[in-house]
Known about the structure:
Blueprint: E1 4-5, E2 11-15, E3 18-21, E4 29-31, H1 36-42, H2 51-59, H3 65-77, E5 81-82, H4 89-96, H5 98-103, H6 105-114, H7 120-127, E6 132-136, H8 142-151, E7 156-160, H9 184-195, E8 214-217, H10 222-226, H11 230-238, E9 243-249, E10 252-259, H12 267-277, H13 281-289, H14 302-320, E11 330-335, E12 342-345
Parallel strand pairs: 6-7, 6-8, 8-9
Antiparallel strand pairs: 1-5, 2-3, 3-4, 9-10, 10-11, 11-12
Amino acid sequence: MHPMLKPAxxxxxxxxxxxxxxxxxxxxxxxxxVDPATGHFLELLxxxxxxxxxxxxxRALNLTPVQVDDLVGRxxxxxxxxxxAAGSPKVEALRDRTDARERLRxxxxxxxxxxxxxxxxxxxxxxxxxxxxxxxxxxxVGATIAAVLSGCGVGRVDVLDGGVAQxxxxxxxxxxxxxVGERRATAxxxxxxxxxxxxxxxxxxxxxxxxxxxxxxxxxxxLEMYAPNxxxxxDWIRAGIPHLYAGVVETTxxxxxxxxxxxxxxxxxxxxxxxxxxxAWPRLLAQxxxxxxxxxxxxxxxxxxxxxxGLAAAHALAFLDGDLPASTGSRWEAxxxxxxxxxxPVQAHGDCFCGAVGNTRGxxxxxxxxxxxxxxx
Length: 377
């Protein structure tokens, strides 16, 4: 092990014998008491020295190997220490990709705070390269999601959409102005290649769903996201593919639900639940979906679309990295101009084919809101 105090955690002294790692309550950890010798030893934890050399240097500070092991163990258990030498073949491959490693250094720093075990962050970041995600939709929301996922190191991001890019599809994080007039799918694939941290990622244009880790449904037609087609969901659920909805309808941004097949409510549950609460809903939906009701330019505020894309991409990455984001089995909505994000659970419905009734996989654990004391996390 080559212990290194995590660079993402700023260090400050609360008093002469107490040091705090981290700024925000979500990450702050307090170590006390800290004598001068221990304070000097902390400066040695920069990832360049293995434990034998640290034992030797600690002797000059009158610290025994037992004291060193205890301190490093406490720091590691509290998520304050990383090990830059730890790894796997995938991590070693990431280290060899110098340009990609430098591009992804801020992402690695963030992951090191979320996943406290030494070396765990690098493993998760390296694992992203083997992941395949499919984004359905290349409008203001979908293209930006695809670009963010590719830029965060996801190895293969396929984008499916039809038609030709229009001026209204252009977004700062999505399709560029020069894409207007090109096929949307072609322009989106070029965007994914440009945003990849280490050159063209493994890319595909087919609709094969094998080996998909996640589908992100971000259609340009707002009703297809707000009231998604249960038949599409049936195909994805039967194939066991997790999927996340995201988009803008009128002046409301929507992220979720993230559907875990057989574990959380799906599009079918959403439709059945709405019909239970509002018997007129199916009739309204049929009218809104008719050709006469479709607007040529659906409302899609650029700032709202960008916020939705960023939040959806963050939820997707959390899931791909092994966590359950707050959109699991829940739909998050925010409307202009207040932009107050609110969550509504998508309950599993007893009449839905998905079989999610009675499953609690979407329940979330509570999080701490105050700094942790004496290295206890």
